[in-house]
Amino acid sequence: MKIAVTQVKIPVMRPMFIGGIMRSGSTFLHKLLAADPDLRAPLFYELIAPVPLKLNLSPGQCDPRILAISEMAELFEVVNPDFARYHQLTPTSPHECYHLMARSFLSKACFLTCFNYDDYSTWFKNRTKADMVKVYKFYKQQLQVLTSRDTDLKTLLLKCHNHTLFTEALLEVFPDACIINPVRNPVDMVGSFCSFLEGLVPMYYDKEVIGPKFIGKKVLYDLAYYADTFIKFRKKVEKRSEANNTFIDVQYSQLVASPINTLRAIYSRLDRPLTQEAIARFEAYVKANPQNKHGRHQYSLARYGLTPLEVRQRFAEYIEYFHVDE
User: Fold this and answer.
1) Helix pair 259-270, 26-33: axis angle to 10 deg
2) Number of Cβ within a 10 Å radius of residue 287
3) Fewest Cβ atoms closer than 10 Å to its Cβ: which of 83, 125, 191, 273?
4) How do residues 120-165 score in pLDDT, each as one tens digit?
5) pTM score, two decimals?
6) Spatial distance between the Cα atoms of 312 and 314, rounded to a whole number of angstroms
7) Which of 75-89, 154-168, 176-190 has the lowest mean pLDDT?
8) Is 162 exposed, middle or buried (0-12, 13-18, 19+ CB in 10 A)?
9) Contact by Cβ (8 Å): 250, 201
10) What residues does 158 pair with on adjacent strands?
11) Which residues contact 177 (CB under 8 A, 6 or more apart)?
12) Residues 6 or more apart whose Cβ sits within 8 Å of residue 215
């Protein structure tokens, strides 16, 4: 992707990154915050095809990128008609920015959803800070290209769980970034992600080969790796004066019970004005998207060969460090 010098010079100021661990409420928080008209959350089709097309579209004419991505999104429901219970995927909705990192061969999707890939997993985990600074510099350039035709510059709102693993490099490239960390009971996160991953297996593997207990073992290991890596970095920087302005931890239980008050607290921590228009849009989003709108996502740890005690013991440091509501 050839990047024009003028686009590289587009400033990216005080971006907001949502990290956390899979199934921690990050998607709900991301889409809720994206309702603020003063924030710019890249959409799914933009992340897949970040170069704006030089087209003079007539009123009502659809961007060809949207049409192309619609077919990709439909594939998930063809393979698994219940996919919407786990995750909603539409071309024009805010989406995870891992697609930008995948162009550096750093795929969260491959790392988390693929099996029997030890060489890639080892390579992925052994990325140094210097490696990741290069990745984030290219990531930033893609954001600048993606927003190059925006009429006004807004605060970027980005979301990817990889930011939890590579926070030090992220802050090297985006030193004024804010990182919002959703926190949830690990028993629920692990069980939910096991179910989510099982729903994806038919897209790539024979269900008879990749069984539930195999999935459980992998998910427990992978999610704990994310938690351990992030906590290690947080402990490293927690005494720095700027750390208090960089990280915002959000309890899932509070987010679900009182989403608007949770957002008020986030904006207060950011010293960011919260407009009446934003509040109205937040309230409208919550009303239009109640929990379990697409059906209740049910799962059982036992199906995956795990117990609540086993999960809590593995995530003991996570529970203590983030004061997780159990």
Assistant:
1) 70
2) 8
3) 273
4) 889 999 999 999 999 999 999 999 999 998 988 899 999 999 999 9
5) 0.90
6) 5
7) 75-89
8) buried
9) no
10) 17
11) 14, 15, 16, 17, 170, 171, 246
12) 194, 197, 198, 201, 304
Distance CA 133, CA 127 (A): 10
- Gap between the Cα atoms of 95 and 88, Å rounded: 10
| C-alpha 281: how far from chain center | 21
Q: Is 67 exposed, middle or buried (0-12, 13-18, 19+ CB in 10 A)?
A: exposed
Residue with tokens 């939890």: 164
Report how far apart, in Å, the C-alpha atoms of 233 and of each of 47, 185, 238, 287 are: 28, 21, 8, 37
Q: Which residue has the tokens 């990047």?
A: 3
- Rounded CA-CA distance 159/34 in Å is 11
Question: In 224-268, where do the E strands start and end?
Answer: 247-251
Q: Which residues contact 288 (CB under 8 A, 6 or more apart)?
A: none
Element (H, E) at 157: strand 155-159
Residue with tokens 């010079």: 9
Say if CB 205 and CB 114 are below 8 A apart: no
In the chain, the N- to C-terminal Cα span, in Å, equals 46
Chain CA centroid to CA 86, Å: 14
Other CB atoms within a 10 A radius of the CB of residue 196 amount to: 21
In whole angstroms, give the CA distance from residue 232 to residue 240.
Answer: 14
Q: Beta strands 39-40 and 155-159: pairing type?
A: parallel
Structure tokens at 293: 């709108």
Give Dmax over CA atoms of the chain in angstroms: 59
